Amino acid sequence: MSEESESLNEEERSLFRPFTRESFAAIEARIAEENAKKKELQKKKEEGEIVYGDDDDEEGPIADTNLEQGMPLPNRLAQQFPDEMVGVPLEDIDMYYHNKRTFVVISKGKDIFRFSATSAMWLLTPYNSVRRTAINVLIHPLFNFFIICTILSNCMLMITPSTPVIESSEVLFTAIYTFESGVKLMARGFVLECFTYLRDAWNWLDFVVIALAYVTMGIDLGNLAALRTFRVLRALKTVAIIPGLKTIVGAVIESVKNLRDVIILTVFSLSVFALLGLQIYMGVLTQKCVRKFDFNSINWTHQEYADFCANA
Asked: Between 97 and 242, where is the model more confident?
């Protein structure tokens, strides 16, 4: 019995293998082998040896929804996960990605972070110390806590009356958001590969908010100062930081998509009643009946105006 448990533990631990240059070479070999098979299959189809539409192709593995980016490690694996591998780049634990250039990092909270195995920003390989430091900073719970506190502080200052001190604090908040984006860029890369910075739609919001912050700081917009109102979008940055909140928002968006016909019907019905009320009561509710009106008075004092309002 003990031998079986030891073999099971060894099997579970074998899932968590450090991502090395040999691991990347093995991925490249599997990709090359798969491409060769596709070319051979395409050649056979062109020569008529295989008829189009035949189900001769072997179906590949399906992505495990429990092992997606941002999901917590399943309990079965979390119990076997060695603590010394926290923050260490590992070979992908989902068989769906066995022939894709990816690797995973497990955080201290046992959350899954998936990264592209290609060079970030065309310079930082997965083995680069700068990129590994950025990954460790990105997945650390204190980093997320610091960003959330920054966002909440920024929101509190935005609802207070504007003062020179509050306006100058925008430089500090913009610098913190820029630092956050810089960490993500060094850890993930920019946009070309999967799981990079701009491949996440929530990071588009970060990019736009930071760009508008620098535009409003560096350019005198004059009448276009209304762009400063886009600062309120910073509150939505918390969705990208908290994985559970991102899941809830995604579910709400999917629900709204399924209710699109009901929403269209509701808006149409409200529009009809709004137009009906506008035609019936247009200008009527702005009028007031008084017992006596002095047509000779033009400039009223405050007391005379108060008496007029009380003359209803």
From this structure: 97
